[in-house]
Structures are given as C-alpha cells and as structure tokens.
C-alpha cells in the first residue's frame, strides 16, 4: 500500500517539531487546508424522492469550478452526498427480509485492502451495543470513472446492515450506533485496526469518493438507481491545498459538509483536550487525531448533539453570530460563555435525518444562497443556479447573512429562518437564571514607587526604546507605535543583545485559505469579553456560568488589587490563590518550573478556582520565571492533570511590555493579563499635573486594540477562541523548552534551551561584576533605530553599508564615481558577508557542484538580469520621481518593476511622446523631472512605441486588497499581474498611506480624496478561500490572457501548503516574501513580530511543491533583504527562480534609512509627496542599472566558481548548501532537506487551467471587436449558467488594450438569461452593457471600469423584487466607473471599495459601502449592520422605512453622517428621484415604480449618508 493510502486509513497526527526533535523537512501536515462548495436539497414535506438526489448530484456537477483535481489531472479532491438511508434499495440489494417495523441501521466503511480485522471488530462493537448484524455488502462501484491517483488509493468500500437485537432499548438506536462507532475508533486510536467509518446510522448514510462531482452517480450505481429515494441530500465538493488528498477526507462528514477554514481549530482542539476529564468516556475519542478542521468540527457537533442538544443547537453553539444585534437572545448570551466559537470562514450544510439546514460564520465569509418553491422544495448552496428551478415557482430567493441559519424540519414540515430559529432556541431553557455578569470593579491600587521603578525595569530587561518607542505612544495616544522600512535587525535567535522570551515567537497570520479581518472597521464582530475562573461544562446546558465576567482580558492595576483583596463577585465560590513565579538563585529554572506546576496542581485540587501567577516579588534574590514559560507550563500541567477546567489563570507579568508579549501570554492559556510594570511605567510618563490613571486607561485601550489586531491577522474575532490556541511559530527555542511550555507549536529550527534562557535571566538580574556601577539610564540596544555602540544590534542597512553601496553606483553624496566599480562592489559585498551572522543564510556555506568553469561557459550577466525584479513599492508611498526612476531602470535592464498597490498613470500606456508634467503623472504625460527643480532623473525622450514597451510602464501590475487604480486598462497592459495576499513587513494587514501623503495626484490615481488616509482592507474581499483565489486568477487571465498571474505570500510555517494550493489555483508564479520586507508605514509590533525569514518559507514552498509534483508548473520568486550575489545564489539553491529587491533599490537611489516614510518627511525625496523634498531626489535610472549589472556580474563569477553554468542549473540544488555555523544552537537540517524526485524548478510552461470547453463569451470577442472597429453596434443574446464566469471580462480587456492606441467608440450589448456565474461583468469598460434577466452570483461588477450592468428579476422575484436576492456578495469591489442597476437585493459588502461607480439596488447585507472612496449608491430596501465603515468618499442613499437604520445605528458612526431626506437641499432630493427613475428605466423595478408613484410620502423614508472628515 502506498503512502497516501496508508495515511488515509491511519490518520495519526503528525508530531510537532517539538515532539519529534527536528523533522527531516519543513513539511507538516497540520497545515493542510481545504475549502469547497456545499449545499443541500430538501422536501419540506419529508417525502422521499429520487428526484431530490438527482438534483443534489446535478448541483455537485455544477460546483466543479469550486473543487480541484489532483496531480494526475483527473482524480478530484473529493465529493460526496449525505442522504437518508435508502432502506428498500439496500434490503433488496442484500436480499434481506425484515419487518417493516424494524429500523435498519447502515454503516459505510472505507477499509484498506489488506485489512482483515475491521469487519470482525466492528461486529463485536455492534454486538456489545445490542445490535444484530444482518450482512455485509460490497458497495458496487465502477472504477473506470476514477483517475490514476484515486484508483491507486481506493479502499474496499463496504456496508454493514444492522437491526436492533433482542433486549435493545427502544428509541436509543442512533446513540447506540454512535457509541459502537466510538468503540471502534478507540481500537483504531490504539493501532488495533485500520479503516474509516464514513457513517453508521439509521437515519443517514454518506457516499463519497475522489471522483469528479458529475461522475459520482456513475461511480456509485446505487445513486443512479430510481429506488434510491431520500427527502434530503447534503452535497459537497472539496478543494484541498495539497495534491495528495485522501478518500476519508472527502466530505460530507457524518453530520455536515463544511466550506471554509476554521481559523481557531488549533485552540478548539486544545480546549477539547483540556476538557477531556469532563467528557463521557464512552464518547471518546472525541476528536480524531490528524483529522481536518472540518472533521474536528463535525465530531464536536456530534458530541453535543448526542449529549442533550439538538443538531441545530449544537451548530449554533459552535458557530454563534456576533453579539451585535443579538443581545436579546438568552440562548446566545449563555452559550457565548459556555464554549468558545469555532471561528473562521464557514458555510455549513448539515443533517441528522430529522432536520436539514445551513449556517454561516459570524463574519459571513462564505456565500450561501437559497430558494424556496411553492411546491415545498428548499435548495441552498454556495452559489445560485446549482439546481434548475422555475422562477414562477420560487416564492423566496434569499441568502444567509453573517451568523445566520436556515433549518428545514422534516418531522414538523416547517422552514425556520434565523430569527424564528433563535426564538425556538430561547424558549428551550431558563438561560436567564444561569448567567451572572457582575463586573470586576477595580480597588485602589498601590501608588507607583518611582524610586524603585528604574531598577525593576532594568531587571525585567527594559530598554530606552521600549519606554520611548513602545510604551510612550501607548500611554499618550492609546495606540501602537507606527514605523517604516521594515526590520533589518537579527531575529532573537541571532541577536547580539538580550531579548525576552517573547521575541522567539512569530505571530501566525491568515493568507489565501482563510482571510484576516478588519478589527477596527468591523469591530462589531470582535469580542474581547471573557470569564475568569472555572470553565463552563459544555455538555450541561442547565449549569450556571461560573467565573467573573470581564469586558477585556487585560486587567488594570486596581482590578488585580481587587482580586488580591477578594473583592469580586462570587468570591466565596471562586477562591483565588496567588502563585509567585519566582525562584531562589540556588534553584535551576527547570526545577522552578517543576515546583510552580506542582504548586498549581495542588492549589486547584485544594479548591482554588482562580490562580494569580505573579512576578511582582522578583528581585536579585527571587529571580522571575519568564512569564510566557510559567503560563504555558502551568496551563499544560493542569491540562495533563485533568484540572484545567476547574480554574482560570490570571497573569501579573512584569516582563510583558508590548502587545505581542500580551498576545503570547493569552495564546498559551492566560485568562487575563495585567502587565503591571508596563502600566506603572506608562503612568510615570504622564506629564506633571495630569491624571496618571488616564495613561493607564489609554494603555489598556491600546492593548485591547492591539490584541484584536493580532487576533484578526488570523481571522479570529473572539478572544475565547484565541486563548490557548498557540497561534505562533517558534524560531530559536530548543524542543525541550517547546515540549514543556509551548506544546504543539511549530518550532522547525531548534535553538536555545533552559540553560541559555536561565543564563540570560541571571545576567540581567545578577550582573557578573557587582563593582560596576549601575547606569541611571536604561540601555539602548538599537533594536529599532541604529546605534553605534558595541553592544547595539547590527542593522543590515546601517550607515556604512548604505554609503558603500551608494558609492558603488554613484549616488552617494559628495563621493566621486568609483574608477573600478567592480572592485568597489566586491569590497561592499565582502563587508556584508563578513558581518556577524544576522540572518539564516549567514550560517550556510555553498559547496561546489563540480570543477570551476570559465566565465565564457557561464550564463551572461545580461541574461541573469532578466530574473531580477524591483519589488512592489506604490506610487504614493514613493514619490513620482523615485517610482518612475525604478520603472525606467528595470525596463532598460530587461528586468521587471512592480507598480505596488497604488496603480499608475494610464498615460504611460498611450501611444504618444512622453512630455514633462507639473505634478508627476497626469493625463497629459509623465515625467521624471521633479517639478520644484533639483536632480533630473531621466533626460532622454521617450519615442512613440507600442504601449507595452513604453519605458515607464511597469511590467508587473499589482492587485492588492484596496484595488487602487485597478482597471481593465491597467490590467490589460501588464506582462505579469501580481495578487498581493500579504506583505512581509505586516502580513495579515492592509496597506497604509497616511493622509499627508495623499496629494491631489495620488488621490486622482487611486480614485480617492486628497488628504485622507488610505487603508487597504486586511483581506481581499474576493479571496476568502482557496477557491476564491482560483476565481480571481481566472478573472485576471480572462481580462488579460497574455499576462502571467502570480500570488505574493509571506513566509510562515505552513506557507508551502498554501503555495501548493496557489499552484492548483493555476497561478503562474508564487512570491515568498520574508519578514524583513520594507514598508512605508506599519505598526511597530507587526514589523517586529510577524512573518518568518524568506529562507524558511522558500525552502518549505520548494519542498511541498516538489513533494506534490507541482514545482514544474510555477515559478518561485523570493523577496526580502537580498543585497549581494551570494544572497541570490543561496536563494536559487533553496528553490527560487527569480529574485526581488526592494530596500537595496531604494538605497542605490539615495535612501539613507532615515525611517521617516510614514511621516512624509523623507530627506532624500524618495518616500515623500512634499514638493520641496521631492526636489532633493538625486536618483537616476543608471544608478539602479549599475547596481544590477554589478550584481549579475558578481553572480556570474560565483556560478563559475561553484561549477554551475547558469542560474537555472542552480535552482533547487539544496544539496549544495551546508550549515557551517550553529549560532543560537540552530539546526537548519529541515530547511536543507531534499524532498522527492519530481522537477525542482519551473519547466517553462504556463500554468493555465484545462477547461472542458471554451468560456461562453470567448466566441463573442472576435465578432464584437470587428463590429467595434467598423463603428457598428453589436448585440449578443444568450442563455447563461452558474458555470459561465467572468462574462464580459475578456472583451473588456481587448477594448481597453485597443483604446490605448486611440479613441474607440463602443456600443456592445449582451442580453443574457438565466443564473450567471461569479464575477459577472468584471472590469467591463465604457460602451459595454450587460443585461441579465435572472440572477447573479458573487463579485458582480468587480473592478467595473465604465461599463453598465443591469440585472432584472424574473418570475415571482419580478413581482416582489425588494424581497428577493438576485446578486451575491462583494458586488462592485474596486469599481472605478460605470453603472449597476439591480431589481432585487444584494449580499454582504455591496460596493466595497467602490471609488466611482453608480449603483441602485433594493437591499444589501452587512458592511455595505465599506471602504468606499467615490461613487453613488442608492439602496431601496433593508440594510444590514456596519454600513459605511471606512467610507471616506462618495455618497449613499438608504431607504429607512421603519427608522431602524438610523435608530439602530446600522451605519458606522465614526465614518458617516446620516441626514434625513427632509433635511437635505432640494437639488439633492431631486437628484435622488432622478436616480430612482433611472433605475426604473434600466431594470423595470416594480419596487422603484411603486416608490415613484407615492413619492411625496415615501421619499421621506430616505436617509443620505456622507463621509465624515477623517484625520
């Protein structure tokens, strides 16, 4: 049996790096992800029918684009259906004779071919639970429908049929079948048997396989039989990020199918482990070791639904909606504290045979559309159009919004939507009597002792930078400090100066498979509320909630004092015990941890219900245990002792002085944190005569905001789900430390152990030389700003290095051009290489591949240069002069430059001479001349040429989450299009451009408002999952089929698996950026603690892609701190085909690393928009060209020295790298592992998706363009289906490209009928009119660039359009111009980042007009919450018929002001009427006609929303 089949049936959890020492490679199956399409079909009357199954199978076939194929090109990642047990079919097939009254139970098993124990063992399990086994059945299959991979791993597929035995307790059959399965799983967990039970039930059965969805019934003839009848069918199509998917991981599970990603799953699993001692033994194992996140969720739902809750209650309990808007629900209030949410993008379809339903996560990050017919059929799914329904029969077409549920009760024959379902839940128990929410009131804290403060700060390792650059902004402004230009100091494991233990932790972040969220603009979904004390029992819904209710996990000094003084609610039942986390000097740190854990266990066993871990008593005689280690060790000790649920952990930490530090403490189990020394320090910084407590309040506020931001990077919105989830990578700590204190955390590189940590601790508190006087000042190690002192940290771009490189290229001030540039570059390179190890590559040496080669036998420097890329740096972050100089230089060189996320001036595409302009790019031309005088960047004129060869056209166009300047014209002129998912300096966050850098020109290019800060959303709102990314790649390849499309990721453990998913999504290249990436502005804590070195991420991506046989399909590019030929060669050996440079390019242009980019005060004119500073810019294209020429020449010499004829020959030759230094006790063996025999480099072909047939609109392009060129109108009439995606985009790209050659009138109309697929009308340009009679899915009008989209309702929806949903989520994302008229309701995030389009729609979901910077939106119906969040431009009208939009503050009050219709001027009132008349003219809306007919009365219900001034 091959590897993948063995894994399929023995899904043992892959041990963490900590548990297995150091792994042989960086591949870790814990990071496998999946996503998919999901839905159900059900008959409300509960009548079984084969037609239900046929419709579900049809839906599966129509979800093919949401799934993926394996590496063999034919095997799917898995499809399946969950249906009712087909009793008659099975009884006949097995030739059985049983009484009609006997209930039939059926098990569906996947068994390895050589497994002989499974059937007998399961029979014994069934017998022990009072069942009679009737027979075993080999399920008929047709293997010709399988691909080679699926066939090679296909197990035996068998069914066991059972009935109750004599003496079986009536009415308990389902639970006994559940317990029999659990008994089998216990044997499986012990290794006594292999095999997988897909389902074992009298109500439901699961058929699943690794086959294309449209062939599931061909593979399983059972499903094609007319005798297979069912009243419902849940269907699922899987998309796995890896390409070695397995049979057992296909879905649905036993109760549900899941589309999405559980961001919190590590924490959910850890908390379930902690609850183990409170759970019934017969229900174990609760969670399957090594299962997917979907499997774990399915099993948790089963546990709840088998122990006192209904299936619907269990789903609602684990996937609750946001508290906002649901405060009145007692069920939700109780269960919010009863169990942490399984948080993350999720659309669920579920059933237990009695009910069938669907649910969405609290953020609404997956789509779910539904339709109900007048014949009692309910269809729900990831898209509209999965099942053909007669529009005249559809009485209700809707969508699930964030946190909503839909339930069909097959027993009572009722359909429940969200609010009705909550009322049902609320009536089910007396929750009101079980909740106590009395707050923890602060007592009077002891005053700060200024005399001892400095000494205490020194003991805990404080530095001047900690106080001035971190704590002071928190205390004065309540904000995290903002910084720029990234982090060029060594990470903790190679640091020269002492670093706290927290510095070895790197924050994890979401990218591609799940999105980060915006904790500021979408704060309505964020909850920091928690309870301190014992955990509620998740299976006892009648138990009062224990513990103290607190609004935030951060405690003030007074609140900790209240705990000490026993002044808190329920004190008698919540005994608090203080646990000093200090040890005597004669005791070792390990022994101190042993003692600490022993004391914690004893205290809890003796009745303590709150443990206060404190290092307040620390001194030279009582050394503090690093609080992260103390917290993690105590938490784990209580888990191991089965006591964790009995007590809460409060932590009073003197060494916690940063948002990141606090996040680590909570991430390893702390229920509440008081950073007492940081708070006292902040209070000491308060100006004389002011209230010091205000400084404490601001610091706590900044900690709240900072923690929410850290959580949101992983897409987590509830602190209870983040606690104990250990969502970090550890770099530089030994496995002994990780296993003891930080269990299950990825730690791939080993590092220092307890001895080294203790040594540093003693040196801080007990200096070796007691005679040396202690300085009054705290030390300054230059961790943020460069310092010259010997004890200070080195910076990669410290002044001598900067000057040396600028001297080479001729951009240094007052330094003549070197006579011997090659010699000068060699000196610069030698000095960089000779530094103390500061990055991972400094620990490596290159071994020769063979004898040294003659230079004439090695690739030419001019060829090597084509692999060089100038990293993405936006116009806005950089001055126009700097941005254009880089572009010109890379085009001269034959390399590539990247626009960054700010767009570029369309003038560079147009065929005309480039002339000087006044303020940088403009419609009249482009110039590199600073308009206030000063250094000229380029003197040569640019002659007329085809647009793609204009010297100022960036070959790489970036598409970032803000979509600034992303139009059809922009995209159609790209050689490459790069989707920036994350940025090295701040992964999990969006870009920032401070308002003082948004000049008039920058605002014009970004379609924004001058002087207003521009914040890109943390996620791409059209990438919430891997299949969403595949859709965006498809869209971009439609609008520009000539361009290669790439995806930029950031290094982090698990990035290799994401890279594999990106390759499966048909990207052409993947960028792996390192943590050292520069930035114009970012939070200092993000710069310092998020993202890993590129060496690690690149090596992991290479390993995973090779292992999965996909490396040859994509180019790998790396980015982050490259500065020498040696850097480039090591990157190539680790797997990079191409190499991107950011900071180095800025340095050669004159950057002196002043790190003032965010302040708009760059003294060299590079990162500023101020004319007087731009005039100081001295960079020239030849400076950049000279740098890359020297670099490539040096690289040619290196290749020759090591016997490599070309870069291509070096790519992936990791065997030529050897670790020769072991600083920090690092072991780079996993990074240098050689994995598999598949190609280790790009094989030179595009990674295009093989399509079964050309897209429907492909055939329309040529005749349309012929008509356009002839000046004739062109009309297309066609039916469309949900598989017809990005309709119109292909033509839009062609028109945009042609228009660059001159004016081109366009008159094209597409008249379409049906349900169209995603991205309808994406990037449509002026002159295009797309009219749809029917309904559309997500992303309508994405990037709309002047076109017009009309969606007309049909059938019942046309008669009552305002009540029907006819378009999906995220419409008009990034639209810059054009019109949309929709005679129906839309989903979530309508007009997100709209910056110029006009739209009228008849209702929207949550987060409407989010981040909008321009355009006009009219909403004629109901609106969800958080309307206008982040809106800084444009205008919106909302019809507020019942006044709840204003009274309920469904808008974001920080960003928009509401004005009632009667309060606005007559001209504005008339403009609204004209807008609605236009809507009637285009869409024929019945709702709009009715409004106009009674305008005098109904108009008063409108509210105008205008953006508030933002500073």
From TrEMBL:
UniProt entry keywords in alphabetical sequence: 3Fe-4S, Amino-acid biosynthesis, Flavoprotein, FMN, Glutamate biosynthesis, Glutamine amidotransferase, Iron, Iron-sulfur, Metal-binding, Oxidoreductase
Keyword Iron-sulfur: yes
GO molecular function, one term: metal ion binding
InterPro entries associated with the record: Aldolase_TIM, ET-N_metabolism_enzyme, GATase_2_dom, Glu_synth_asu_C, Glu_synth_asu_C_sf, Glu_synth_centr_N, Glu_synthdom, Ntn_hydrolases_N
Domain Glutamine amidotransferase type-2 intervals: 36-411
Any single Pfam family the record assigns to this protein: Glu_syn_central
PANTHER family xref list: FAD NADPH DEHYDROGENASE/OXIDOREDUCTASE, GLUTAMATE SYNTHASE (NADH)
Family classification: Belongs to the glutamate synthase family.
Protein name (database record): Glutamate synthase (NADPH/NADH) large chain
